[in-house]
Amino acid sequence: MDYARSSWCMSNGDDDPADASEGADAADDAEEAGGAGESTDAAAAPTLPDEATEESLNEYLDEIAERLDGAETEADLDDIEALLDDAEAGLDEADLPEPDEDDEDADDPRGDLEGRISELRDGVEEARGPYADDVVDAIEAAASTLEDTEWTAAGRDDAADAVVAFVDAAADAVDDEVDAGDIGPDTVETDPASAGDEAADEDRGDGDRIDDLVEALDAVAEAVADADLDPDDDAETIAALLDATDDLEAGLDEAEEWDDLETHEQLRAQGYYDVLGHYKDFPVEWAALKEHEARGNVDMILLALDSLQSDFMERHCLEAFERMGKRGKTEASVEKMLGRAEKRDQPAIRILGKMAADEATETLVEYVPEGSNPQLQKTVFKALGEIGAAEAVQPLANQLDPEGDTEELVRPHAARALGLIGDTRAVDPLADALAEDDSDDVRAAAGWALRQIGTREALEAVAEYGDEHSFIVSTEAEKAERALDEASATA
């Protein structure tokens, strides 16, 4: 699809000498009728007494209202604005009775007159224009709608048709004021196959096609702005252009947006259900989800997560990502899970761990000292361990301190996370926990972590507890002893 940019330009032909002569004759007639520099209308303008009264002000405003009814040009409206200024000044100086504050129904001459002046000013504003600027503003608003809206395929075609119709109508409306050149519906293509090189057109994305439509509208707006259309002399042209922009706006309003579709229609349009040969499970969205998980279609699982708002489908989408682990890691999926993790969403934190998404380390480390939420801490510790986040070693080691705020049930998870990370900087704090913690669960977890680190120093720190009264601690010591023996045998 190739939308050609409109080539509009201002028509700058010389003025007709006959028109200039007629203008000079008209000026001479005006001078004779009302004096130099004074129009016949200005000579007939109403006057306000120096000391205005309620009656004289109302009469003055009656005459202004009559002039407003008969106003035909912007100059007429400017004169009326000046008369209203005089009326307002006269009202400020007028000595009018004040209403009785204790009587809600008392007359208020000043307030009534102020109301009349305000209504007349509104009438002047309503009578002004239309202006070329109004046309430009309407075109720019339509261009913004085109850019900011997510269209369906059918909606994009309808939007393009609306732009084509507008460009054609605008070309008809401007006539001699703007040289329309070859502009018309054929210059804004909506069929890629008719735009020239089909192979090249197929490579053009939807965004490029919208850009071309916007470019065509910008060209019309620029041409209208450059034409310097006069609100009096070119009133019909401006009105026709505004009618065309109204039709353009209506066409865009009627064009189909993604938000207009039901969720299942959006999913169908984006190929979510294409993986199903037949529906095996209910709901069908779940059946499709399982197939997408099996095929590793991360984008489709994200689509379902964003589109399907039920708790049931949200849970299954997240579980699919958790099962996929690293296979489900893409830039988009990590970004999605990080956004949820920043809201302390524990399923998302678990998924980031399974993905080994080191991009999440900075966010998760912030949650390590969250002593008021032990369940969150457990989830975060495990995720950091699965990620292998070296940056988390010291924060996790701090959680081993039995004198700290970390609960006894949480400290084993900190120890295991350190074992998963495998950083030798954790050997000393883990050995201290093994030696000093009152909880056998914490000590056993520290022993397991030291075995995962696996250096001789780490294994020796565990092996010395072979005679420990706690079975789970002595079991870790025995495994460490065997590991040392195996290392010696192979040395």
TrEMBL record:
<dbReference type="InterPro" id="IPR016024">
    <property type="entry name" value="ARM-type_fold"/>
</dbReference>
<dbReference type="InterPro" id="IPR004155">
    <property type="entry name" value="PBS_lyase_HEAT"/>
</dbReference>
<feature type="region of interest" description="Disordered">
    <location>
        <begin position="1"/>
        <end position="132"/>
    </location>
</feature>
<keyword id="KW-0456">Lyase</keyword>
<feature type="compositionally biased region" description="Basic and acidic residues">
    <location>
        <begin position="108"/>
        <end position="128"/>
    </location>
</feature>
<feature type="compositionally biased region" description="Low complexity">
    <location>
        <begin position="38"/>
        <end position="47"/>
    </location>
</feature>
<feature type="region of interest" description="Disordered">
    <location>
        <begin position="178"/>
        <end position="208"/>
    </location>
</feature>
<dbReference type="GO" id="GO:0016491">
    <property type="term" value="F:oxidoreductase activity"/>
</dbReference>
<dbReference type="GO" id="GO:0016829">
    <property type="term" value="F:lyase activity"/>
</dbReference>
<dbReference type="Pfam" id="PF13646">
    <property type="entry name" value="HEAT_2"/>
</dbReference>
<dbReference type="InterPro" id="IPR011989">
    <property type="entry name" value="ARM-like"/>
</dbReference>
<feature type="compositionally biased region" description="Acidic residues">
    <location>
        <begin position="51"/>
        <end position="63"/>
    </location>
</feature>
<feature type="compositionally biased region" description="Acidic residues">
    <location>
        <begin position="71"/>
        <end position="107"/>
    </location>
</feature>
<protein>
    <submittedName>
        <fullName>PBS lyase HEAT domain protein repeat-containing protein</fullName>
    </submittedName>
</protein>
